[in-house]
Amino acid sequence: MSNERAILVKEIKEFILREFLVGADPEELTRATPLLDVGIIDSMAMIKLVVFIEERFNVSLEVDAEQLATIDSIVEAVDAGK
Questions:
Q1: Structural domain tally of the chain?
Q2: What is the DSSP letter of 61?
Q3: What's the alpha-carbon Rg for the chain, to the nearest Å?
Q4: Which pick of 12, 40, 78, 82 has the fewest CB atoms within 10 Å?
């Protein structure tokens, strides 16, 4: 994994933990954890996540369940949007 990609993963994971999983064990949130399927994020959280990503990484994303399914899919969407 490139350094830039590792930074994306770290920052997105930290945001999810801080905003949606307060007090959770960081080790339980992996790059492949299904964020929607297990209820970590809902439709309102998706919007908040997209706003964070757009502002932090200067990209434009759709509020799309496929793109926001896992940390890995979010990183792919950010990479594609650059």
A1: 1
A2: -
A3: 12
A4: 82
Domain of 26, in residue numbers: 3-81
Please say if the pLDDT value at position 82 is more than 70.
no
pLDDT, one tens digit per residue, over 31-66 is 999 999 999 999 999 999 999 999 999 999 888 889
**Residue 30 C-beta-side C-alpha neighbours within 13 Å:** 4
Query: For the domain that residue 10 is a member of, what is the CATH number?
Result: 1.10.1200.10
Query: Is the confidence at residue 19, as pLDDT, over 90?
Result: yes
Residue with tokens 């434009």: 60
CA angle 57, 59, 61 (to 5 degrees): 120
Amino acid at 23: G
Amino acid residing at 10: K
Residue 81 clears pLDDT 90, i.e. is over it: no
Contact (CB, 8 A) for 54 and 19:
no
